[in-house]
Predict the 3D structure of the following.
Amino acid sequence: MKQEDMERILKIGVQLSAERDLNRLLDQLLTCVMELAHCDAGTLYLLDGDVLRFKIMRNHTMRVYSGGDGRDPDIVPVPLKRENMCAMALLEGRTLSVDDVKECREYDFSGPIRYDSLTGYHTKSMLAVPMCNREGEKLGVLQLINAMDDAGNVCPFPKDMALVLESVASQAAITIQNVRYIQDIKELFRSFVRVMSSAIDERSPYNGSHTRHMAAYGNRFLDYLNEKASSSGEEAPFSAARREELLMSVWLHDIGKLVIPLEIMDKPARLLPEQRTAFLHRMELLRMQGEIDRLSDHLSGEEQEELTDRTRQAEKLVEAANTAGFLSDETLAALEELAARTFTDREGREKPWLSPEEYAMLSIRKGTLSQEERIVMESHVSATRKLLSQIRFSQDFSHVREWASSHHEFLNGSGYPAHLTEEEIPVEVRILTILDIFDALTADDRPYKPGMPIERALAVLEIMAEKEGKLDAELVRLFEESRCWEET
């Protein structure tokens, strides 16, 4: 064996142990093995049930380079039967070599022969190396075609090459298994995250699709940013790892809502149900008392009708204010006047038509939450950080806790909980914040407001970016340009 071949074997070992992407690993493996064996073509199969499935194909003469990009070659898989040379190698766990396939009667070479007749290629020597891990588990086969001598002529594969390739294949099998384990663990974690996210959204009848929408928009937005950069000859800003880390942050950004009481998170109106019931009951008592006073001649019929009319108007005012998205000055003034009215109950005690607590809740100008309730609601980001701090993230997801728990921070420092400034907010958080606000504005399943039309929501984002300085203006522009909320 030549010195350069020894060095190539060592290099292959280093490359295989360093690679964590299965597609790139398989591609590198076949390429390196073909170089080591000095052959013209090769195929890498992985075992899938009772068939060997094509994963990578290389043929230098025919300029065929298929697989390696995550898409399998569109070829019928090889049944795991003894008449197939590659299948036989895996079944018996040993390397098989054929000097000339047309002279061999032991195996079925109808496939290569048919390929040759269609393409003009000439398949002659062939070597099949099984890939098994240290436990003997069968993983796949490396099949090499047409060894080449120094002059470039097709020749049989050298006898000593089998042992070399078996060593490489064994190491490759272990690496493939390890990469699969890593992928399985990652997918398990992703599945767990999606389940947790769905549990958060499904915990409430409102907001049920928020995170899923954000993930879908985010996925398409990152595609757009990468494609835009590539079309300009620039490097794509979001690698696969960076992209996955950001999308993981999207899935986990609201995990802190698990600890927020439902009566606050799902509050559809300013008054709590028991407060609304108490008010309506009070108005009914006033009408009944008016009826009693009329029958006992303490009120005239006109006075009783006026009292009834005023209570009905009060009910309409409270019902309208209770669910309004925003209260005008006129409505607030009417509520103040209503809160100032009093009546005397049957025990002679003076009581307000609208209790101080009811007035305080009804006079919330925007939304349905009081200041105290809003503080509780906003605490979900701190809870997100606290909950995520208990997860031991791998290096690939080392920023998830920071990004997920910062999605309510604004560039001008007016966000929460840490009041970060522009210099402290990474681009990933800026994107996450835009996605969160956009879906919150356009969502039609919120209890306290109807969903905004798309163009109006985009106008709100522009105001928050350009006039208020809260959002990244360039990212908002690109977000609008991407139309990432539209499914393709």
Q: What stands out?
A: The mean pLDDT is 88. The radius of gyration is 35 Å. The first strand starts at residue 39 and ends at 48. Strands lie at 39-48, 51-59, 64-67, 78-79, 96-98, 126-132, 138-148, 154-155, 342-344, 350-352.
